[in-house]
Amino acid sequence: MSLLIDLERKEEVLCVRLVGELDHHNAVKLRERVDSALSEYHLTHVLLNLEKLTFMDSSGLGVVLGRYKKVQSVGGELVICCISPQVKRLFELSGLFKIVTFTSNEREALMSLGVAS
Fold first, then answer.
1. CATH code at 15?
2. CB 83 within 8 A of CB 91
3. FRET label pair with 73: which of 31, 34, 113, 117, CA 20 to 30 Å apart?
4. Structural domain boundaries, residue 95
5. What is the pTM of this model?
6. 10-residue stretch averages of pLDDT, the chain, 117 residues long
7. Phi, psi for 20 (deg, rounded to 5)
8. How far is residue 2 from each of residues 19, 30, 93, measured CA to CA in Å?
């Protein structure tokens, strides 16, 4: 049940790459790390790369939705890319596909956020 969190700043975008499982055991850690980086670097956009995320439960979904609301409140955007079939189903059931932008790769996600790659 471990989760590796890789954070990288690209212009005004916080790139978050997750490896492993996002569940109630580590959802708070992810929220704290992302919120801290957004505040520290004064960023307004988040790119969430889920290519290597193997599992997500409702706690993880709550963290994603919370970060979406956080960046929206300051005029930013959250874009998700490289979603695995397992996690895609959770997003379909939750209705998140209706409000969040999804792209097939990180390059497209960065371009949609105005960052030339």
1. 3.30.750.24
2. yes
3. 117
4. 3-112
5. 0.94
6. 94 97 96 98 97 95 96 97 90 90 96 86
7. 115, -140
8. 8, 12, 24
